[in-house]
UniProtKB/TrEMBL annotation, chains A, B:
InterPro entries the record matches: SLC26A/SulP_dom, SLC26A/SulP_fam, STAS_dom, STAS_dom_sf
Alphabetical list of CDD domains matching this protein: STAS_SulP_like_sulfate_transporter
GO biological process, one term: transmembrane transport
Transmembrane segments annotated in the record for this chain: 134-151, 163-186, 192-211, 243-264, 271-293, 327-346, 420-441, 472-492
Compartments reported by the entry: Membrane
UniProt membrane topology term: Multi-pass membrane protein
Lineage of source species: Eukaryota, Viridiplantae, Streptophyta, Embryophyta, Tracheophyta
Pfam families: STAS, Sulfate_transp
Organism: Oryza meridionalis
The protein, known as: STAS domain-containing protein
Gene3D superfamilies in the cross-refs: STAS domain
Annotated signal sequence range: none
Principal location listed in the UniProt entry: membrane
Amino acid sequence: MVGQQQVVDAAAAAAAAATTRVPVPPPKPLLRTIGGNLMETFFPDDPFRAVARESGGRRALAALRYVFPFLEWLPSYSLAALWSDVVAGVTIASLAVPQGISYAKLGDLPPIMGLYSSFVPPLVYAVMGSSRELAVGTTAVASLLFAATLGKEAPPGEKPELYAALAFTATFFAGVLQAGLGVLRLGFLVDLLSHAAIVGFMAGAATIVCLQQLKGMLGLAHFTTSTDVVAVVRSVVTQSHQWRWQSIVVGCCFLIFLLFTRYISKRKPKWFLLSAMAPLASVIAGSVLVYLIHGERHGIPVIGYLKKGINPSSARDLLLSSPHTMVALRTGIITGIIGLAEGIAIGRSFAMLKSYNVDGNKEMIAFGAMNIVGSCTSCYLTAGPFSRAAVNHNAGCKTPMSNAVMAVAVMLTLQFLTPLFHYTPLVVLSAIIISAMIGIIDYKAAVRLWKVDKIDFCVCVGTYLGVVFGDIQIGLAIAVGISILRILLFIARPKTTVLGKMPNSTNFRRMDQYTVAKAVPGLLVLRIDSPIYFANSGYLRERIMRWIDHEEDRIKAEGLESLKCVVLDMGAVASIDTSGTKMLEDLKKNLDRSSIQIALANPGSEIMRKLDKSNVLRLIGEEWIFLTVSEACYYAQQNCKIGVGMGVVQCVVDPEHMV
Amino acid sequence: MVGQQQVVDAAAAAAAAATTRVPVPPPKPLLRTIGGNLMETFFPDDPFRAVARESGGRRALAALRYVFPFLEWLPSYSLAALWSDVVAGVTIASLAVPQGISYAKLGDLPPIMGLYSSFVPPLVYAVMGSSRELAVGTTAVASLLFAATLGKEAPPGEKPELYAALAFTATFFAGVLQAGLGVLRLGFLVDLLSHAAIVGFMAGAATIVCLQQLKGMLGLAHFTTSTDVVAVVRSVVTQSHQWRWQSIVVGCCFLIFLLFTRYISKRKPKWFLLSAMAPLASVIAGSVLVYLIHGERHGIPVIGYLKKGINPSSARDLLLSSPHTMVALRTGIITGIIGLAEGIAIGRSFAMLKSYNVDGNKEMIAFGAMNIVGSCTSCYLTAGPFSRAAVNHNAGCKTPMSNAVMAVAVMLTLQFLTPLFHYTPLVVLSAIIISAMIGIIDYKAAVRLWKVDKIDFCVCVGTYLGVVFGDIQIGLAIAVGISILRILLFIARPKTTVLGKMPNSTNFRRMDQYTVAKAVPGLLVLRIDSPIYFANSGYLRERIMRWIDHEEDRIKAEGLESLKCVVLDMGAVASIDTSGTKMLEDLKKNLDRSSIQIALANPGSEIMRKLDKSNVLRLIGEEWIFLTVSEACYYAQQNCKIGVGMGVVQCVVDPEHMV
């Protein structure tokens, strides 16, 4: 068992340990510290590395490539990739046309605006976006939110022009917000929406979107403008005499067809084309059916006349200084942030699959640009809905070119095919929306959350219930509120644990985690698991005193050696503020009165600097600051007259045997 | 050098290390976990320990003692202690009478209410309070805030009854809030006001209080109702023709006298009585002077008639359902929280000096009770102002009995001596306020903050400027806002650092802190310094990938051995949520593609449980989870085909030599 390494006994180890003290870092120029912190806060991903590497004209090109990622892939674009992108683009166009019309109806906007929104924004994204799979289009959540908030300000039935203008304005503000967040590198604000919150939020939004479809499915002419469950159910039940069986029958048939194709392509991913084409097939079949049996006269409402031609300009419709601007601003902020959070999360997950990186801040600028341009060309809010991205990915897209192909396909539709949608029954659109939304309710994720993290589950369910029983804003407020409260509680009530010595080693570990860890007689080793800030310094002082009281009670009860020294393991204390240094000062004074020594183990450089500046270092005594817990314990045993020793040994490796 | 300990060579050490794996904690019943967490959050100080120890009738007595701390000290109260308390009580009464009148004038309330407020609330506190030094009374900040917020709703000059009723109502709400926070154990919310914020806030409040005194000092009849510097200076300058030299001369004389006594007793703490008695002496001297020279007719305004007799009831004046209730509620919340934060901080600092504990939540209940009772007996908001507590402490108080003595002294004043204050000049009251406020501006603390922690300094200065140039609410909002933003930023941008091996030991430490720490070839050891939450999981993933990129750049540039394994030191990761486990999963998948192994060192039990539940443990492989960084490095060297080895040795102590 005895190898070639040399061993040093405890005394020598202590001597060796004495040579590696914890240093107080040299003072750093203030501006450099601030600069470093700002850099780390706003440019953590060092985005301009590629630009900084080049020089002269090449640097300008690199900068251009940074802003317009298409310059990166276009030069090496191959015919094979083009073919893949054309296939993918046509596929998503066949989904985009019926979905665009459906979501525009959901948002109480003219159906044609859904098609407009699938033409211009995808072109912008093809030039500026860096995700290869994201397919741009309108989303159900934003559409519903437009109807719910803007609809109150300008009922779309009464003032359609004002309503459309408000929608453009909200889209404009959303774009400005998105681009602004990207330029100011504030992408981390979007991270305040946790994954759990997004799961709950999307499920809640999908639920209320499905409920809204009861209007179309039941063929009702009037419907509540509220989105919550109670209002919708009441509206449906009180109008039961108005239900139209024709609408219900047609709707259910198409819904079953759509869900069946979804099921098939989920089981056999190669048949994805089936589910991708199903909505268009339903629209065609439904239109033909209604045309043949004159369904519009028998209780099956249809879309009606759609104007031919591509997007007219809407730049003059923006209401930047009207009494309604605030509503548009609020709606824009909420939908903009939701669109970003969802779009970036989706872009990142697909990028993960193909192992390339999506720069969040750059994506925000792309999203912002496409919404600003969109708001001036009769489009409303666009983002990257999951269903389209999944179809795009399955169809084998290679670059954002598939978005451009989709845009061209939609443009051709706008120019030549709009009259064909005249007889498309609304109930088919409802079926398309429902089948898309059901895929979004990710109950399995909620089960996973429950298993792994109960608080995340609460965030998820709270958000869901907030959206379903309140409204979308309430749900969002709950999500952000619980999430931030959790962070604050973590800081306000950090864990302190008692460490014990692991057998046969110099390591100290939590005694509640490692049953083999043993307390060292006469010593109490405590570990603090968070930065020491104003929000927890009072708590920590009381909690540490309570640990000491408990330990002394135990010592009395068991007749052990009295407590001589408290060792604080500062390894996990990443930061400290003036309340924190004051806390340590108070603690030292308190313990002095009970003749208990205090020792610190493994403080970081920031801690050392602040302890030094605040004179707490001198108060505690530099000789009571140690590199490791075991050194602290060894020193305390030597210097605190602790009778019963314990083999706290420092291991030293012979330098000769090191390479 | 070679001692008796046995050494085990590296291979054996690895074998030994294999026996102390990081355990996955056994599942705990959900309710017990929740119960434990709630207990730790709301009862961190285990307040009922003394009660739980007893049984039967003794337990009831212990519970009663818990609620009414005077039952604890009264049974063993000695004559000597009584004598000390009487001396201290009379001393603080001599300060309380002029201060009470001054602050009531500052709050635009009838001067007599200042005396009322020094009678009933101190009695309540004597029974329920647990700080021995705190002396109850009105505060300048609360008075000024009443004038600033309630004065806008009901100008005291036009509607004095409504104004007084609003003051009682605000006091009532403040009391309910304080008692409620105490009963609900939400004391930690008060901790969200950091020490730095309180320093800045008090200094700002003192500044604007002093500025308000220009009215009295200059003998002005009209004055602005705003508190900010700009408004006050404009009001003073535009009325320069109204300045009265008599008032200025008298005021300056008394101010110099007061500041001189303060200075003396600061230099010689034994002469504290000089500064404690100075305000009363000034009032007496000023009154006599004015009476003799008929100063009230020569530009020196006096208090005028004061009603004799103790507090009338004001329970019927409370406006609990009037249009003004909301203003009173808001004022009550703000003043209540400021009163708590200041009072508890002061109580705790004096308790620290005499090494006893002040229970924050219990103090809140005491404060709440005294304000609720006070609001029904014509008192307005009371707390524990610093100046009185300091005088009380210097005068040698032993128990809260000194508060009761002060109350009796004030009651006698109310019954018999109020007519004597008829000729007290207002300018003397202004001088008393200014001299009290100047002591509160703690510029030295601001300098200390600058030295130790720049962000705390920003909080302090921001709060000060907010109070001085905006108003008290703006200052508070800035204080809480910056403080919370700091916590969120700490979580959103945690530190990650590269660790290196310390020479002659198995410890790994930060290479930027310890210049002697050396990187291990082929390995990258990273340490994460915060919990991994949704707010930072995206950042951490990118930051870790960037460390790896940098390391690979360096390796290429220096022609070193390529990177084979990344070791994450999880020792400082106190907590993880589902976004965090997802991050580790993504990281593992990312690194797998570059054929880099990932290893975790020293994860806590919560981390292990969540990694296990989320299946990330299986993905990484349990054999890649280690107790220490050195074990992880050793194992990686053995298993990742790293050519150039390095003596990473595990030290094992022979159990026979351990006690």
